Amino acid sequence: MYAVGLMSGTSLDGIDAVLCKITGSQKTTKVSMLAFDTYEIPEDIKLKIKKACDPMHSGVDLICSLNFELGELFAKSVKAICKQANFQLDQLDFVASHGQTIYHQPIADDTHVRSTLQIGEAAVIAYECQVDVISNFRVMDMAAKGEGAPLVPYSEQVLYQKENECIALQNIGGIGNVSVLPPEKSPLPLIAFDTGPGNMIIDEAMLQLYGKPYDENGQTAALGKVNEEMLKELMAHPYILQVPKKTTGREMFGQSFTLDVLKRYKALPKEDIVATVTMFTAKSIAVNYKQFLLPDYPIKKLIVGGGGAYNQTLMRFIQEELPQLEVLTQESLGFSSAAKEAIAFVVMGNETLHRQTSNVISATGAQECVILGNITYGRKKAC
Length: 383
Fold this sequence. Notes:
Strand content: 15-25%
Helix content: 25-40%
Largest sheet: 7 strands, mixed
């Protein structure tokens, strides 16, 4: 089958679209990437997403409209990646769309039940592209009492697990998350959780301080000096040492959090602020490894994917914080850091169509394995 996977993450750095050929199911799954690109999210829509994610400024009318706007944008991305690959749209078997997370509440509080919301209307994609769409992957895991995240470990287990090697796969998108794959016959379970912020705080700091969307190659952070007082305060955030299973997102480390930090440390040189929040991401990853992973898992390699893999200063900081590990990128192993999550949803969408489960209960905490995703049919039969 041929499929397009779509991922729009919390970093808002674009819509990742991957065109794949996929065969088999579960352990027989084989995926080959035919084309990949990241399509820009217009600035006005980025601002709407940020507003929709902020409980102080959001509203039902905004979310309702944005759901359809993003559906149109996702449909354009499907058409664009097929055109780029000279692939006929009517030959596509399905689209797997993660959607844009607006809010994720994995733990209930006094006024809210456990819940999650991803938008980007699947019906719009299905109609515009005349293709079946699998979307809304997280809700079934939450219905089964899981946290709805992380979901990528399923594809990692299928595509990366080795017979005799324990591997840590660290994704650094807007949020950082890790999956540890023990050897195939090991009694140790696969473990996965969000380590804390990824690029989210770095990107927002760059936008506020320099008017740039991100720190290209970590060049700005490389010019700065880490401020230990600021770093100590950031590392004191209760999420960092919260015991897994745990997930987080823009609701915790988004724009409001970053603006508050920038306000308190406005006297610092701008490059020092960027260096410090970059180290915050690196150190939060390292602390989680030292506290929760390395005591039990014989990890030797840490393979980094996501946009953070291209930030050379961040990669250097991670290696400095974890000198006992070999820190590599997906590219160094012949894979794509940028396409990894979009491919993951193609794998999960394929399982949905095969009526197979694709949540990893040791990662999400769900009571049982369940089939993820809703199917919206786009191909019409004659009336």
